[in-house]
Amino acid sequence: QVQLVESGGGLVQPGESLRLSCAASGRTFPYTGIGWFRQAPGKERDFVAAISRVGGNTYYADSVKGRFTISRDNAKNTVYLQMNSLKPEDTAVYYCAVGRIWATSPLQYEHWGQGTQVTVSS
């Protein structure tokens, strides 16, 4: 099975930036969709962004459009989430996930990383 490891989270002030990475290993062959989700304490896991492995098609949640950019480096089996102009409401644990097709619903993803904490606070 595929293993996913997120990194790059941390504590930043509003308006600053972070770049998250998700490194995949193991049996990645069947998977074509990569998504980023986030979950704040006591809330559901929300979609952030998704990208297709082959075509590089992207989709973003309205809350992050214009601020976040998802990208991938297939040679490194790594997907990135560049987060600019961070807001306190972006505070959450960020998870990456893979599936056989890229989508916005967490139900469409089959394997998940353990998450990385992003805290935006002054």
Give a description of the structure.
With 122 residues, this protein is mostly beta strands. Helices cover 0% and strands 51% of the residues. Strand 7 and strand 8 form a beta hairpin. It is globular and about 40 Å long. 32% of the residues are buried.
Quick rundown:
This protein has 122 residues and is an all-beta fold. It contains no helices and eleven strands. It is globular, with a radius of gyration of 13 Å.
Looking at this protein, list some descriptive labels.
122 residues, mainly beta, 7-stranded mixed beta sheet, 4-stranded antiparallel beta sheet, globular
Number of helices: 0
Q: Per DSSP, what share of the residues sits in E-state strands of 2 or more residues?
A: over 45%
Judged by helices, strands and strand pairing, the structural class is mainly beta
Taking all residues together, what is the mean pLDDT?
A: 94
Largest sheet: 7 strands, mixed
Relative helix content: under 10%
Instruction: Name the helix and strand elements from N-terminus to C-terminus, one letter apiece.
Output: EEEEEEEEEEE
Rg? 13 Å
